[in-house]
Amino acid sequence: VLIVSSFSPETVGGEGPDALWRGLSTVAGSWIGGGANQTAMKEVFGAGDKIFSTMIAVDVIVANLWMGLLLYGSGITKKIDKLFKADAPTIDEVPENMVNYQLQVAKIPNLTETMILVAIGFGVTAVSHFMADIIAPWIGNNYPELAKFSLNSKFFWLIVLATTGGLLLSFTRARKMEGVGASRMGSLFLYVLVASIGMKMDILAIAESPKLFLVGGIWMMIHAGLQLGVGRLMRAPFFFIAVGSQANVGGAASAPVVASAFHPALAPVGVLLAVLGYALGTYAAYACGLLMQAVAP
């Protein structure tokens, strides 16, 4: 926003629900976390449907161009690792460890286990809804000045509480639900969410504001530069750079695809990194949205 506003302030301006910073906050949600975080930012910052549809197009097109480069890089990973002087043997141990973990926890779930899995998911969501209905109005009535931070939004608290609940459960016996298909069930609902988001995309809207691609492109170049720069300093294998990047930008739907391009057994690594992105996505995207609001012209 700062870079583009220096030579084209009208591109990153706007007022009300269609202010660009509101739309970009949804891109931050998607590129840090995923579709759920993107939807959360739309509701939290009140992005209008028009700017949201345009931002979805920017998100999808720019992110998939970057994914194409990552997939190309997976084919020349040895050259990149040599250039980065990476500790390549480290990644060779990961497929074996992942296969062993899958064999330890995987099982054919029965009806009871499936019902418990669904009950946990919907139960955490129900409790989050209940708490959000209490917290948001209380903040709105007692601390109206916090409305500018969207802390009076029920949806904001719903996402934060549900995410926090999932993180806390990961430290309990509930984490064993992974063996009966927790990730698969989550992916199912994720695809439903992604499909519902995609239905709002208006790719032709980009023709009206082609400079928005420039904003997305600059954003992605900064991301790529940081990823590659830090990877070079840490001498990290390109696998971790690529999958870590795609886990943020693409989420659980595409991170396993990039991981599988290196080795089929590595697909779960992409899922796990994407889940971490989902966990951090709401918090980080919310902070990012506030920063963009502060610097928007």
Give me the secondary-structure topology.
Elements: H1 2-5, H2 20-32, H3 35-45, H4 49-75, H5 77-84, H6 89-105, H7 111-142, H8 154-169, H9 182-198, H10 205-208, H11 211-234, H12 238-249, H13 255-262, H14 267-295
Description:
- The chain has helices at residues 2-5, 20-32, 35-45, 49-75, 77-84, 89-105, 111-142, 154-169, 182-198, 205-208, 211-234, 238-249, 255-262, 267-295.
- With 297 residues, the protein is mostly helical.
- It has one domain (2-109, 181-295).
- Helix 2 (20-32) runs parallel beside helix 4 and helix 3 packs parallel to helix 14 (267-295).
- It is globular, with a radius of gyration of 20 Å.
Summarize the structure.
With 297 residues, this protein is mostly helical.
Key features of this structure:
297 residues, mainly alpha, globular
